[in-house]
Amino acid sequence: MSGSQNLTATAYDQLSPVIAHRGASGHAPENTAASLRKGAELGATWAEVDVAISSDNVAVVFHDSDVNRCTDGRGLLIQKTARELAGLDAGSWYSPFYAGERILTMTDLLTLANELCLNLNIEIKPTIGRETETVWAMREALKQVPFNHTLLLSSFNVHALYAAREFLPDFTRALNVEAIPRDWRNRLDETGATGLHFAADFFEEAIIRDIHAAGTPMACYTVNDFETAQKLYRSGVKAVFTDYPERLILNATPVAR
Ligand code: G3P
Ligand code: MG
Fold it and tell me: Using a 6 Å cutoff on CB, does residue 130 contact ligand 1?
């Protein structure tokens, strides 16, 4: 129907089969500017990152609940101010080459992704009990830096998905799980999620085919080899999250060794 708007369009219409997981985190410290730049350099057009909040409610790009593994600091992320987090080194743990890499705020992330023309899957990783505050902080970041590309939200945390449905209703949402729940349909209905993201280790051909037949888009983490990715695509999985985008993108830029 000419002139009519496609009201069923979702971020999945734009999703590419390869998503750089925490950026190209096989090559650079995860969730940093370096890993996002590396992902784009290797040919990824989508990146997944994790977002949580600081003690003063600033959305930041970080996976763990504490800063011990991925920075030179110690302690819980939620107990540090944005200023304290900005002072941490988020690169040296990975390699001295990345010394000085910083934890990105979500506004840094949006600015960089705009520059790199990267579409984003933001996985909401709230501290339990701070789900709504995390989504509010994300909404604030999106107000400060309008995003020019496609944004897909996801979470393992249903309260985060409820908050996203209420406060960021314009963005497509996915439910993250490890194994696919038998009542996957109800879980999606309950959370208002369009897509289902599950762990590759829990691959089950029959249920995946059912989900695909129902028209529900699926993505699968974390897949670092070409054969597994192909098997998943054949079963109807739309995209895979990978630490090594160049292994899955056929015409990828070769990685310098
Ligand atoms: O969003 C997919 C994947 O990132 C979920 O697991 O632990 O790597 O955040 P995790
Ligand atoms: Mg994640």
Answer: no
**C-alpha distances in angstroms, 85 versus 51, 182, 213, 256?**
13, 40, 45, 32
**Domain spans of the chain, in order of start:** 13-53+119-140+147-249
Q: Whose CA is nearest to atom 5 of ligand 1?
A: 221
Distance 254 CA to ligand 2 centre (A): 25
Q: Is 242 in the pocket of ligand 1 (CB under 6 A)?
A: no
Under 8 Å between Cβ of 249 and 42? yes
Per residue in 24-70, pLDDT tens?
999 999 999 999 999 999 999 999 999 999 999 999 999 999 999 99
Q: What are 165's two structure tokens? A: 């449905």
If you classify domain 13-53+119-140+147-249 with CATH, what class do you get? alpha beta
Ligand 1 close to Cβ of residue 123 (< 6 A) = yes
pLDDT tens per residue, range 111-133: 999 999 999 999 999 999 999 99
